[in-house]
Each structure stands twice: as structure tokens, then as C-alpha cells.
Amino acid sequence: MATTTYSFAGKTILVTGGSRGIGRAVVKQLASAGARVVFTYSKDREAAETLLDETGNDSSRVSCVQADFTDRLAVAKMVANLLEEGPVHGVVNNAGILRDTPMYRMADEQWDTVLQVNLTSLHIILKNLIRPLAASRGSVVNLSSVTGIAGAAGQTNYAASKAGVIGLTKALAKEAGPLGIRVNAVAPGFIGTDMLESIPARRKRDLEKDIPLRRLGTPEEAASAVLFLLSEEASYINGAVLVVDGGLL
What we know:
NAD(P)-bd_dom_sf; 14% strand; globular; SDR_fam; alpha/beta; oxidoreductase activity; 7 strands; 8 helices
């Protein structure tokens, strides 16, 4: 596992989609760096509880909340509840879903749900956190994807949502920068998470051949990029998109 020397002591960080994959690695690295972490999960309570156990099972350091990111009001309520507990110093918008199918067969629900979870939820969260983040001189890291840069067949909804994350990041960096808030994005390539579990072994080998480093990335490697952008070591980086793809693009 990648290690970090960053210090987030005394800071409260929200991590959406934190129970699995890259989000899980972010939560663990932030906790080890001294942050108080609140992470969200959608349905997998068991995975969330396992992560709580792995991070010391101390609710004053790491806690979780179930949130339905397909529900605009539920997202707004989650943020309001978080703010009642105290100041927020950082946000990692990681929650995301796939509903892949060719565009000519894509149902409206597949399009709407992916855009709601992957993009609109960021608008809701950040709209409600701008003033608190300005007060704490906070930092935001949004998870995009190389698919949002290069596209991918069968993923028009996902690609559109992740391209939207990049546009949101760059625009909000200009709006929020004067308030002392930095807004950046990480665009992972093929990372060894649950999202790739359904891919046949042969397809994975083909993917690895397209990557100059000849391997998939790890959640920890992507998480390390997130922590860097979130940290004071990146204090003059704003509006950036850090691609973590082994050279794929």
C-alpha cells in the first residue's frame, strides 16, 4: 500500500462513495494521515462496517452515512447533517456508477441516473459547501475518468458525466479560487476495483497491453494522487486534472 507523510490533523474530510475501490483507499489514507473522515456508501453496509473496523472503529475519527445519490433531496440533507457536526475542510467527490449500453439502446433511466449520481450530486454537494469551505480555506478533489477525456464505446452516459466533472472542476476553480478554495480533479485510467471484476481475464490482458506500464493501477495509487491535491503540498494547484492512467492516454 502507498504511504503518505501528509498531515490532515484537525481537518474533517467528506469522501463520497467511500466504502469500496478508490474511495475506500482514500478513506484509509486520510485516516492514517490524521483526518476525521466521514464517508458515504450506497447499499453495501457490510463493506462500510468492514472499513470502519479496519480504520480503528472509532467514530470520532472515521464514520459513515448511507446516502442515495439518485435522490437530490437526500444528498442535500446529507450535507446539512454533516455541517451540523462542525466545519468541513475538504471534499472528495468519488461516488459514481456505470450503466453501460450503446446509445441507440440506452434507456432514459440509464442516462438520467448516471448523470444524477456522477455529476449532478457534485453540484448539490458543492453548492451547499462553498461558504463552509471558504471559511475553512478548504480543498475539493473530484473524481473524473480517462473516459471523460477520450470517450469509450458503450459509455456515452458515463463519458458525458465524467467530462462534465472536468468542466465543473475548471469552472468552479475560477469561481472559488478567490474565496481560498482549491478545486482539482483526478482522472484515473484502468484501476483494479470492483468495476473491473466483471471483465473477462482475456479482456483484462488486452487492456494491460494498451497501457505503457503494462498493468492496471491500484486504488492506493489513485488515492495517493487525491491526497496530494487535497493537501497543503498542492497549495498552488487549482483547476488541474491529474491523469493517473499508467500512460494510457
